[in-house]
Every structure is written in C-alpha cells, then in structure tokens.
Amino acid sequence: MTAQNLTTVEVRMLRAESRKRALQDSWTLWKRNPVTIAGTLIILSLILIAMVAPWLATHDPFDQILADRLFPPSLDYWFGTDNLGRDIYSRVIHGSRLTLMIAFVVALISGPIGLVVGVLSGYLGGMVDEVLMRLSDIFLAFPKLILAIAFAAALEPGLTNAIIAISIANWPSYARLVRAETLAVRNSDYIDAVRILGAGHLRIMIYHLTPMCLSTLIVRVSLDMGTIILIAAGLGFLGLGAQPPAPEWGLMVSDGRNYLVDQWWVSTIPGIAILVVVLGFNLVGDGLRDILDPHQRQS
Amino acid sequence: MTETVPSLIPKSEPIDYSSTNNESQPLLTIRDLRVHFYTLRGTVYALEGVNLDVQKEETMGIVGETGCGKSITARAVLRLIDPPGKIVSGTVEFDGQELLNLHPKEMRRIRGKRISMIMQEPRMSLNPVIRVGNQVAETLLIHESDLSPSAARKKAEEMLQSVGIPDAGKMSKRYPHELSGGMAQRVMIAMMLVTRPKLLIADEPTSALDVTIQAQIIDLMNDLVHELQSSVMMISHDLGVVAETCDRVAVMYAGSVVEQGRVEDVLHNPRHPYTKGLLRTLPDNASENEDLYSIKGNVPSLFMPQQQCRFAPRCEFSQERCFQEIPGSYQVGNNHSAACFLHENGI
Amino acid sequence: MSSVDSNPSSLLEVKDLHVYFPIRGGVMRRQLHTVKAVSGVSLNLAQGEVLGLVGESGCGKTTLGRALVGLAPMTSGRVFFNAKELHHKNGKSSNHAMKMQLIFQDPYSSLHPRKQVRDLVGEGLLINGLARVEELDEKVLDILEKVGLGVDHLYRYPHEFSGGQRQRISLARALILKPELIILDEPTSALDVSVQAQILNMLKGLQKEYNLTYLFISHDLSVVRYMSRRIGVMYLGNLVEIGPTRSVFENPKHPYTHSLLSALPSIKKGKRKERMILKGDPPTPIDPPPGCPFADRCSNTQEKCRIEKPVLEPLKKESSQLVACFFQNENVL
C-alpha cells in the first residue's frame, strides 16, 4: 500500500482501531484491580442517584412535618427524620447533587489554575518560578481547611463563596505537583527533540508538557475529591458553606449534632454518605494512577 | 527443497545429558532448566530446557540478544527468580549439590559465599549510604562469623588493594557515588571475590563501562579468577568481550542454548544457523561498501511453549521438520554441540 | 584539506568551538568550577560525507552534537552551516537549523510517550508550517515507508514498539524535514547486534539515496569504522586525531587513539592478547589542567605536554590525517 491511495476512510479506520486498542488496554488495567472496580461503581451510582434524585426520593426534602420530628428509621421514613421533621433519606438523596456539584466545580476551577501555574513555573524557571512558587508557598503555609474557612468567612457565607474559597485553598498544591512533573520532563530527550524541530516555548508547554502533567494531575484531583467534599462539609457544618435549608451533607451532620446521643441517625446517616463517597473517589484515584501510566501498558 | 531421502548414515543420537561420563565432574551442571513467567497477558515460556555445564576453573560465556534468557539462567542458578517468574523444572547441580531443592537458609549460605554475582551497573548494586570498605567487610562478616569487624575491615582493604584500587585505605572510606564507574566495578569485584567463591556469575560486567576501562576490568577479572581458581559464568551480549575472556561459550536464543563449545570453535567455526547469522551481523568484518548481513524477521514471541525450533521461522536452512519438532543437541565436533537438525548426522 | 580554515565546499564548519558549563554553589550561587565539555574543537564536514566521532563517556562528543543543534550553549567559537553562521539563542534553534537534525541514543526516552507516531513524526512539519493537518497522514506515511514502517504503525503509541522500531520513528521524525546534516548520537548502542545491523544498513542506504551528511557519534569503533570514511577521536573535550578511517585505524598516531584501538575487544583477537591498557580513569572535564589533555595517562609524557596544549597538525605535508601531539612522529607504535 502506498501513500497515494491512503483515503480518508482508511485513516478513519486506523484511528478507530487505535482508540479501540487504547480502550481495551484501559479496560484490562481497570478490571485487573477489584478495588478500582468498587470505587468506580460507588462513583457511578452516586452520579446516577444525583441524576434521578427526584424519582428516588420518597418525600420532599424541604417539607417540614413538625409532628414527625426525630423519628427513627422506619418503613415510612427509611433513614428517620431530623429535628424539623424532614425525611433524611430524601435529603441525603438530594444532597448528592450538591456534593457532586461542589466537588466537580472545585476540581474544574483549581485543577486548570494549578496546571497553568505549575507548567509556567517549571518550564520558564527563573523569576517567574520564584514569584509563582513564593505565592503558592504563602497558601501552602496554612492547612487547607483553615484557609478555606478564612476565605469563606471573609466572603459572604454561601455555597458559591464556599466553592471559591475551597478552590483558592486547593490550587497551590496542584501547582506544586505540576511544577515537579514539569521539571522532571522538561529536560528529557523527547522535549529536546521537538526543540530541534523548531518548536517554540508555547508549543512545548501546551502540546508536550501539559499532556505529561495532566495524568498526574487527574490522579491527584480524583484523590482530592474526597478532601474537597470533606472541606465543603466542614464549611457547611460551620455555617460557612451551603445555607439551610439546603440538604448539604455537612450541614445535615451539623444539624444533628445536638441529638447525637439519643437520635444518632440524624448526623450519622449523612456522615456515612460522606464516608462512602470519599472512599469511592479515593479508590478511583488509585486505579486511575495505574490506568493512566503508559508504562503499565508495556507489560 | 528436495525430498528427504532416508539416510544410510547412522544418525548420531542427541547428546544424552542424563549420563555424565565426562572425565571430570563439572562444577555447575544445568539440566533441562525451565523458567516460566505467569503474567497477566499469559505465560511467558522464558527458559525452555537449558542445558549447560561450567567446568572447574573455566570461564564460560553465555551470549545472546535481549530476551534470550541469559540473565534469567544466571538468576535461576542462584534461585533469584522473582514472582511472577517460577522455576518450573530442571536441575542445577553445583559442586555435587542440587540447588533447586535446597532449603532457602542453605541457599543463602551458598549465595555470596560459594557463588557470587556481579551486576551490570556497579553503582546501582552498591548501597549508596555505606562506605565501600564496610560493604566489602560486611560480605565477609556475613559468611565468616568468627571474624572480628576490625579484621574484616582489614581484609576488605587488602582485597580492595588487590583489585587495583590505588590508596585502598583512603578509598575504602568513600561512598559509592564518589567513585567512577570503573572504580565502582572494582569494588563490586572485590566484594564478590573476597569470600573466594567457587563460581562467579558476571552479568554484563563491563557493558556500562568505557572501552579502555572495560579492558582494565576484563584483565583484572581474568587475573583474579585465575589466582583464586574460580569458575566464571560470563554473560554478555558483546561477542568481542566473550572472545577475550572465555574458554567456552554457549549461545542462547529464545530460551534455550543453541550452540555450545570452545570459544575458538564457536566463534570461528559456528555450526548453528543463528550463531552464523549473529556473527555475520557484526560490523567488524564488513567492508564499508557492502550491506551488513541481517537476520530476517524478529525474535519469536515467548508466549507459546516451545514446540519447534524457535529459530526456524528466521532460518535460511529450515525444513518442514524444524517446525514440528524440537531439535536435540547434536555433537558437531570435539566438545562442540549445536541444537539443529542440520547436524543430526554428526560432524 | 590541509588546514581547518574556511573551506567553501564544506556543509558544516566548526571553528574553535568551546562549550562550558558553570557549576554554581554556595549561598550567592557563585560560579565555583567550569566544566569544559568541549574545549576548542574545529572540524569540517563536506556535503554527503560521513564523519565518525569516537571517544569515551565524558569526552564531549555528545555535547558537541547537542551544541550544534542548539541544545547546549556555545561558549565561544563559530559554526558555519551552508556558509551561514549559526546563532543559537537561549537553546532555541535558529531557523535554518531545521536542516540539521539529531538522533538520540536512547530510543526509549526520545519519543513522547503520549503521542501517536503520526503526531511524533509530523510535528516538525506542523511547527514549520510545511503541511496542513489534513495532509499529515500522507506525508508521514511517505516517510515511514522509507524507514521500513507502514500504515499500520501510523496511529500507534511508542510503547507498542521495540527499540529498533523506535529508532526508525526517530529517524522518520528527522527525515521529514529533509535535513542536510543528521547528527547521530550513538543511534545503535541501545540495540541488539542483529537490530543494529538493520538500522545501520538503513542509515547507510538513506545516506546514499539522499546524499545526506552524517556526524556519526559512537563509542563503538567497529560501528564507526563501518559507517564513516573519516573519523575523529575526542578526548576530554578535544579532538586529538582526525583523518581517513582507514589510516586512523591502521596507523593511529595519537597515543590515545592507539590505546583505544588496542582496548577494543574483538572476536578476531582471541583470549589474552598483548595490548596496551591505559592506566587510570579518564580525568573529569571540571577545571582541566593546562597542557595536553592526555598527559596524565600517556606513556610518553614530557615536560612540554604539561604546559602547552598541542594543536591538530597534519601528519605530513598534504596528509589528511591530523594529530594533536607534540611527538606524533616519534609515536611509532
């Protein structure tokens, strides 16, 4: 076969085949590890639950039936009711939407910021690196939760501001990670090779360094999802995040804290929900590390 | 291809390795050694019946290309095959003792004491945070419990001196990263020979070194081994190194030994088609106006158990039979054998 | 060619090239030492010529190659390529340097692990605006076929290839820009001999077909002998001998060349031959002493060698073999 009769159809076929091979490899690596499978199932069911929440819920999550307050789990109220007589099961189901939204929005804000800052810092070095890294050092000097609390408190309490606060607290660690990866890759032969071909700095950063850093970042962000959810819950608990009556899990734990001894389910059930989701994200993150590593595909 | 006419010449039987009627008992005898790796993609049949002898006070070379199993053979002798690899069958007899069913504790006593091993990258196999003198002394202390630490250090220093390290007293206090590659390999050799092992396995000992340093190390090893009356199993991909250091050589291809004999016989009068091809690919002999010879095709996949001659698909002389049976090892000369049906009828 | 002065017919002309790297340390990042990786190399390469460059690790042969393509800084000296002077700014190659390409030693680290062959090979065309994305498949395939790969390989990732195949991909990546000079930095030293033979044959074939010029860097003397008409020997950042391959091999004049040739293991020589083994390790190029770079290990060192650095001089008048040794005529070895 010569180059002349290489048609679009053939090219399309080759590309499809290549994609299929890549998918197959990912599939093999994915199913190799039962823990990853468990994590993926947890996250997938969470997404599913969030999507069909109104149909799964048995009650209106905001409907207060004061006569039914603090009912233990029963056939009518599967997970019991809270101090305002709201069905905890329905609130947990609806809360999954909030939780997912927070986790993904924070990841989508802080991930790219960390990526850009890290690649710039690692590749350009010198003054750019000094300034960007000292800036991130300032943020890293404080624990994430404290920083998020500070920002959330400085801004007005509310869900949007909580997301902003968590994002601000989060990006520096991503920037550090990406910078380290960039430093490791930037002097490698394959970067030198494109430099000889005449590639400029921008091209090297966007097309060659970013793909190398991306997988590490994705793994890290997916492992961080749990922390993000916990911080969001923490902010909710402190009244700095989602505001009542939103069915945010952290807020729900906070609401139940006065009843922890006698009416344990009010706090415990949303707490378990947080636990399961955090665990799920962590397991998926571990699995992604294996799947995204090109070396794994050699064996 | 002509029809195979039944030959009137009596066929020489494949060498029967089960009876050892050699005049002298070899130091190391490997028989039908099989090592398989159980990977996710399936079983890798890495060694498929390796037969090898190392005589006393002899340097035996093992050559072959990446993946032919030469390093695995060496590691199997020391039982250093890590999972997912497994020694499936075979015998490894060392100095009258079967190693493969030895208790792990006894095996540890043999490793380093009676059989030691030198690796390719010296600075990777030395502990970076321990002074080199202490590392050599430690080997002694492990194997000679009645030795005092100070005596061991003194002996270590002497050993470092004898491997040609200048100012051994001072150098023994250095850390591995402060040494050049050549010096580090000398330390490695000192460490491995300080217990006066009967067998030294050298896995590409000079591949990471420059030619002038390589020449020094080769000379040093030749001298020391001669002095200690040890045997050496020298693994290398460099036929030149083997020619300079070894008495006998085994050529491996895809998990088995295809040719074995004295160096001058194998390298100057190769009988197996693979050995012939390998020697012809070397640029040493080629004139600059001709193309280098290259063996057609690629190394076979080791995911299938051996059922035929594994070289047959690339062989210029292959016959139908080569694809159906595994060739035995046939005598092609004095102390020279080749695993190829071409030589079934002997010399 | 009796001197290294400007030669209008040469494709590449290197004049007294120095490549230094500072070693900084301390609180103020003062420059403590200087690594003189290349200290004063001059050479000429004619169009269509293959020049072999040999030497041990740390002799500066790789750095020289990297400096030519702009991956290492040129501290001083001038380089002319196609009669135009090369300027490298901040490690970025100048424009016409596209015609000069480098093949790396390690085929496993020179290809981006997350890019498909089409993108790896086609990159140069896209960067230099020589092709539109739609044409890439065909143009890349054209080149792939020249290096013995095919349409099946177009959309594969590096991890799906063997070492030899990867080196073919690297070569395709360089060839697609239609370079005049290819610097080959130990292109086969990571490969098995049978694969090496295939790659060398291909390199030789391509060189003849396109009248390419090669600077063939290797530590393997037999490979260099096979590949090149002319050979240069480097030691500690200096070119100590250069000349036609045959005469350098048969009649080495520099004591270092001689010991290098003598140290070369060969299947012809057999066991335990008489040879000249160099004592000691090669010295480091950090702040090297003045004088002849080889003085420390030479068997014939005299006072003059420690003070003055010998320059490359033709062996006899009109000889094309140049040696940097004061006693070249006494080295009857």
Can you tell me about this structure?
The complex is a heterotrimer of chains A (299), B (347) and C (333). By secondary structure, chain A is mostly helical. Chain A is built from 11 helices and no strands. Chain B is built from 11 helices and 12 strands. Chain B has an 8-stranded mixed beta sheet, with helices on both faces. The longest helix of chain B has 18 residues, at 211-228. Residues 1-10 of chain B have low confidence and may be disordered. Chain C has one domain (12-330): 3-Layer(aba) Sandwich (Rossmann fold). Chain C is 26% helix and 23% strand. Chain C contains 9 helices and 12 strands. The two termini of chain C are 25 Å apart. In chain C, 51% of the residues are buried. Chains B and C meet through helix 8, helix 9, helix 10 and helix 11 of B and helix 5, helix 6 and helix 8 of C.
Summarize the structure.
The complex is a heterotrimer of chains A (299), B (347) and C (333). Chain A has helices at residues 8-32, 34-51, 53-56, 88-124, 126-140, 144-154, 159-186, 189-196, 201-237, 249-256, 265-292.
What is the residue-mean pLDDT of chain B, rounded to a whole number? 83
Low-pLDDT segments of chain C: 1-6
Coarse shape of chain C: globular
Q: From N to C, what is the helix and strand string of chain B?
A: EEEHEEHEHHHHHEHEHEEHHEE
CATH fourth-tier homologous superfamily of one domain in chain B: P-loop containing nucleotide triphosphate hydrolases
CATH topology descriptor of one domain in chain B: Rossmann fold
Broad structural category of chain C: alpha/beta
CATH top level label of one domain in chain B: Alpha Beta
Distance between termini of chain B? 22 Å
